[in-house]
Amino acid sequence: MADLYIGLMSGTSLDGVDGVLCEFGGSAAASLRVVAHAHRGFDSAVAAELMALNTAGADELHRAALAGNALVRVYAAVVSDLLRQSRIDASQVRAIGAHGQTVRHRPGEFDGTGYTLQLNNPALLAELTGIDVIADFRSRDVAAGGQGAPLVPAFHRAVFGRPGVTVAVLNLGGIANITALSADGRTIGFDCGPANALMDHWCLTHRGQPFDRDGAWAASGRIDATLLSRMQAEPFFAKAPPKSTGRDLFNAVWLASMLSSGPSSANPADVQATLAELTAWSAATAIQAHASDATRVLVCGGGALNGHLMRSIASHLPHATVRPTDDQGLPPLEVEAAAFAWLAKAFVERQPGNLTAVTGAAGPRILGAFYPA
Ligand SMILES: Nc1ncnc2c1ncn2[C@@H]1O[C@H](COP(=O)(O)OP(=O)(O)OP(=O)(O)O)[C@@H](O)[C@H]1O
Ligand SMILES: CC(=O)N[C@H]1[C@@H]2OC[C@@H](O2)[C@@H](O)[C@@H]1O[C@H](C)C(=O)O
Q1: What is the mean pLDDT of the chain?
Q2: DSSP readout, 232-269?
Q3: Among 172, 175, 198, 243, which residue has the most ligand 2 atoms within 8 Å of its CB, making it the best to mutate?
Q4: What's the N-to-C CA distance of the chain in angstroms?
Q5: Which of these, 98, 2, 49, 17, lies nearest to 371 by C-alpha position?
Q6: Domains of the chain
Q7: CA-CA distances (angstroms) from residue 94 to 74, 97, 134, 154, 372?
Q8: Where is the signal peptide (predicted)?
Q9: CA separation (Å) from 137 to 91, 105, 243, 347?
Q10: What does DSSP assign to residue 165?
Q11: What is the Å distance from ligand 2's center to 223 Cα?
């Protein structure tokens, strides 16, 4: 039987769900083949509710439970798209790795353990698809004192790692994270700052568009150096890894406080240009600090389709080629979903999914919880 897994990712951009059906040839992810990719956007009511649940509000428990159900109905539709496209029957798929929707991420805070919360209803997904589901990949790492994020570096190492060569992988989702795959075999990874979450918010507010296609609007503006340096002073950027972040920090309130706490350009296009530069600067700074000898930077996530952002990052890293991951046979919008297919496989095989050097957890841990078909 082919080793078939589905990965489902709905990330911090809140743009919808990416799913992939993957075939694994052996235990190494290098032998992974994406058989099918499907994407479904959230309808506006679901997107608005998921966004609202990122901040405290009335009757949250009830609303969060219903939002988990709504999310899973989109997941089930994506699974059905994948099976139809690939003409594969549900019974042939070993498991689905379903990330869920992060609405809070506070590892290590409050009582020392803190929490990370992904809305989901894996029982309903198992019911709707008839396939085993693995979910809640982050909590065990947090329980072991880790950040619970980013989790993709282990997958990046397995698919993009090259012995004796330093490679940097940059994910530009709602939040940005890097993986530094050093020539000597060490792997470091951490969230390096905001990516599309703030740019999408600003674009929607001022242009009525969910995102700035190709970064054309940002490219039309001028970087506001004063605003940029105020943003760069955010303590998260100077923090040493392990570190992770999310909409808990980089949200509309953060942006509003940056805009109101000193002089800033009145022109919204200039703010967009400044946000793009903040992403480029923070990613390039992280790469220079942890993978200074990288001559290749592989970019995944929707930001890889933002030509302006890609050029800005490249201009900060003149000694490296900055290319989308399609170059390595895995298109940018498939990487994270494939990582959760890979993590589901790791769970089924009782292999640890975390890298302690990345998350800071006390040890390697098997990640996820099992919901049988
Ligand atoms: N053609 C494009 N031009 C500019 N930006 C784009 C383009 N296509 C997608 N994007 C951006 O990519 C985002 C989606 O990226 P992605 O699917 O990687 O996010 P995500 O899964 O939410 O990420 P993460 O979990 O890493 O935070 C969109 O919200 C948009 O901002
Ligand atoms: C808590 C959470 O959902 N974090 C996401 C988010 O989106 C990007 C970045 O922040 C990364 O840390 C993580 O996602 C990827 C899939 C990860 O865990 O590697």
Answers
A1: 97
A2: HT-HHHHSPSS----TTTSSHHHHHHHHHSS---S-HH
A3: 175
A4: 18
A5: 98
A6: 3-149+333-371 (3.30.420.40), 152-328 (3.30.420.40)
A7: 20, 10, 10, 21, 10
A8: none
A9: 23, 13, 17, 9
A10: B
A11: 27
Closest-approaching ligand to the CA atom of 152: 2
Report which of 311, 314, 202 is spatially closest to residue 264, judged by C-alpha positions.
202
How many other C-beta atoms can be found within 10 angstroms of the C-beta atom of residue 86? 18
Distance CA 6, CA 22 (A): 6
Give the model's pLDDT for residue 1: 58
Residue 152, burial from CB neighbour count under 10 angstroms (0-12, 13-18, 19+): buried
Query: Does 220 count as an annotated binding residue?
Result: no
230 lines ligand 2 (CB under 6 A): no
What is the token pair recorded at 325?
Answer: 């991951």
CA-angle at 154, arms to 150 and 157, nearest 5°: 125
Interface pTM, i.e. ipTM: 0.99
- pLDDT band of residue 264 (cuts 50, 70, 90) is confident
